[in-house]
Amino acid sequence: MSLFRSLVRRYKEKYDLVGILFIGPPIIYLFLIIIYPLITIFPASFQEYVPSSQSFVFVGLKQFQRLFADKLFWLSIKTTFVFAGFTVILHLLLAWALALLLNTRWWPSWRVRNLFRAVLLFPWIFSPAACALLWGILYHPRGFLSYFSQQLLHTRIGFLGDPKVALWSVLLVNGWNWYPFYMIILLGGLQSIDRSLYESSEIDGANRFQSFFHIKLPLMTPLMMMIVIIDFIGTFIVFDLVWIMTKGGPLRTTYLISFFLYEKGLMTYKLGYASAVSVFMALFLSAFVAVYLILYLRRSKV
Amino acid sequence: MRATKKVYKSFLVYGALGAVGFLFLFPGIYGVLVSFKLNREIFIWPPAILPRLWSLEGYVEILSQPKYIRFLFPLSHLLCV
Fold this sequence. Notes:
Oligomer: heterodimer
Shape of chain B: elongated
Largest sheet of chain A: 2 strands, antiparallel
Number of strands of chain B: 0
Radius of gyration of chain B: 21 Å
Strand content of chain B: under 5%
Strand content of chain A: under 5%
């Protein structure tokens, strides 16, 4: 009995019971909402759903065989890669340019700078659905940007109707909606760089480009790695924005992997097949992050 | 001479900042203005930035129907918090 008591006492010393009570409900909630469904897709990907009996039948690796032979799947993978890759590039370019602009010393006063920062943060307040509706009105054949293109280029660009243009117009909207987040991260990083580094480089006669490439860029690399990972994953699984604007688009030029998943899982109820797609996505994104981190750690060690 | 140059320069800087800011703000402002338009006025040709007739029809419809108010203040969000 005394052994039990000492165990209880040691447990109480080590862990705060009240704290455990506080984090208990969120953990149970997260488990029920996120982790449990995530685990169930792994067994479901080896099974096939039979709607008539509402049951799953074990089929082994058949779903994956079917998946890798599916041309639509590879098309959606390709589109998603183009979409996510160029979105990351666009976000990084915009975020770098505007963060450097906000970080310069030639602002007339801090009030002007803060006002401009607020202006640049403005697109962030739109939820993706509102953003898609808003830009849908602008991109409409009778909308403002079509009129603008007709006046300037004498051709009416079909922003969401032309198979060559649709993906890029959707990409631009995603860039517009999310760049403030990455801009703020980069701006915080830039402001945390020690002033003395700039001063010593100025004494050594470095110009602005040298101070950018030899001070700012190396010190910001960890932040940029984080941004690339977050942004790539976030854009890889994007659904709402593109779905509201194009629904897969003209000739399936904006057909993302999430649309493939939605079509298989919730429109035609091939639940086993959709689980296989989800497993592929989860494993691929984990592998992407792992490879990225390994490369980064190896480089920073040398 | 120097003062005029300074004024000229600050004018240029503010102009450039205003242009960049307007470029990023424009879709949002246009969206707010569209919310005051009547439904049939949104896609007139050539498109106008300002509504010809400022109407609150959309707002009245959203705030007077219970099914929309339910989406504005969803119970599920309270549960998530």
